[in-house]
Amino acid sequence: MAWRDRKPDDQPFFVLADPDHMARLAKALAFDAPIQSCAAGESLQIFRRALPIVPLRTRIDGKPGAPTLADAKGAIEAIERGAELTHAGAAAALVTNPISKDSLYKAGFKHPGHTEFLGELSMRFWGADVLPVMMLWSPLLAVVPVTIHVSLRQSLQDLTREKIVATARIAAHDLKARFGLAAPRLAIAGLNPHAGENGAMGTEERDFIAAAVDDLRREGIDARGPLPPDTMFHSEARARYDAAICMYHDQALIPIKTLAFDSAVNVTLGLPFVRTSPDHGTAYDIAGKGVASPASLIAALQLATRLAGAKAGAS
User: Fold this and answer.
1) Domain residues for 188?
2) Same domain for 102 and 190?
3) Which of 40, 67, 223, 313 has the greatest number of beta carbons closer than 10 A?
4) What is the pLDDT of residues 144-165, one digit of tens each?
5) CA 152 to CA 59: how far, in whole Å?
6) 241 vs 158: CA distance, rounded Å
7) Is 64 domain-assigned?
């Protein structure tokens, strides 16, 4: 659907997949999309007339909405191959689709999610020891969770002054280098109701979040907080910052998915390459019905094009 809705000036893309499986899906959906298997270097010439598919080694046999172990192995291979081809210069950026973490775990996946896996691939292909940072970006709001794919109980154990500073530092750097903001403004969320109410509702703000904000300011980063999480996301508050640094996953993702579900994009900061993704999950309940919206994937492709251009200009 993203290929069908392409515009004349859209950046061409290719898909890492099983060409036969993609052709079967197109037929089952009565979707008139020509599918052409090719090497990555041939995709530019093919894109205007057909959807270029760079074949995986893994054969995919599953049906929509019914993940299999083989399909999970194919997903892992696709992510690895995507990073490898980006490193080789065969692609300007990597755009990943949603994954079923449960299926991947059963196939031997050792990482909590995409973000952490991309950190490993940065070391494997670029030799870069990085801290991958997840940002959900939209024209309305950008959010960065400090702790990501762990339980709420675990996130409270993992949250530290040093982790807040490291995450916010990477966010500020990439907002400058890739998003073109000369002096990014960061709003640092508190953890507790009313940002702790001076210790009456929790002491984390007083114990280390405020200190992290002071550390960032000493580095010359425009950071303010800790701010009460329940008043950070209305329109007037959002106008005062470029990104919100949130303490845990849902504190960040609930507001942006409420405000911009179809247009928000998952961007991994801190990597030596550009990676984006739709902000939603696999939606297995509607898979294969032809009703899913491609809007977030199209937004991810468009943002990847923008960021890849900024990265090329910076280098």
Assistant:
1) 133-270
2) no
3) 223
4) 999 998 899 999 999 999 999 9
5) 37
6) 26
7) yes
86 and 154 in a single domain? The answer is: no
Distance CA 210, CA 120 (A): 31
DSSP alpha helix (H) spans, 107-248: 114-121, 152-158, 161-177, 204, 210-218, 235-238
Tell which phi-psi region holds residue 66, choosing left (phi > 0), alpha (psi between -120 and 50) or beta: beta
Residues 40 and 95 in one domain: yes
Residue 312 confidence (pLDDT) = 53
Query: CA distances (Å), 104 to each of 128, 282, 288, in order?
Result: 25, 13, 20
Q: Which of 155, 78, 163, 162 is nearest to 114 (CA)?
A: 78
Residue-wise pLDDT tens digits, 160-197: 999 999 999 999 999 999 999 999 999 999 999 999 88
Q: Among 101, 129, 157, give the residue marking a domain's end.
A: 129
- Structural tokens at position 180: 């073109």
DSSP SS3 for 260: helix
Q: Which of 129, 146, 170 is the last residue of a domain?
A: 129
* Peptide linkage before 226 cis (omega within 30 of 0): yes
Specify whether the CB–CB gap between 226 and 247 falls below 8 A: no
Supply the pTM of this predicted model. 0.89
Residues paired with residue 142 on neighbouring β-strands, in sequence order: 137
Tokens found for residue 239: 């106008």
List the CATH number of the domain containing 141. 3.40.718.10
